[in-house]
Amino acid sequence: MSEQKNGQSRRDFLLKTIAIAPAMAVGTAGIGALESRSVLAADSTRSAHSQARDYQPSWFTAEEFAFITAAVTQLIPKDERGPGALEAGVPEYIDRQMNTPYATGANWYMQGPFTPDVDKAFGYQLPLVPQQIYRLGIAEANHQSQQQYGKIFADLNAAQQVEFLKSLESGKVNFQQLPSKTFFSFLLQNTREGFFSDPIHGGNQGLVGWKLINFPGARADFMDWVERGERYPLPPVSIRGERS
């Protein structure tokens, strides 16, 4: 969200960060639950700028889901290069993550002492799991948005939403129960994951994230092309065999 000196767009910044923090490297604790229903036919006919499939959240409340939807729309917006996080179904991905062991911290060491002041050296240091981070963070964000703009976040215009997200990222918004920077970092990371993960987890619908970076996906073998210095010519394939 930070301004770039050369005026690059948020999507340009996103593409640059892939090299150092590839969202495909999602930990096993963060893998979403599989769905039995088939969506291959619907996804395969989606156009480049079509909407994500209809989805009703199973964990977030309606107000919380409205916040998630509005936030990811600004974090990875659609543009001339293709769909953004909203069109890729990232809100669905994040909601489905809230019903996994990742969200409850089942595989995390959660014993004290908790020393947030050393998190840069030792990593995450709060006694909160992702479910709590989202529930508390969204409530705090909407409260602060109401105080600053007179509206909750989802009701702000696009410019105000971007301004507010930048304030969260920089830690300028004062949350009472967790640092706003921590909440923003989880939101941004899960948005990246939802945009670039396999569609089986709810996001990257229509393989739009993979098409953006020309990632071949779950193809059995593409090693012959790794050192050619050429663009891979075939479209990506998902774990379930979906092709873009």
From TrEMBL:
InterPro entries: Gluconate_2DH_su3, TAT_signal. PROSITE patterns: TAT. This is Gluconate 2-dehydrogenase gamma chain.
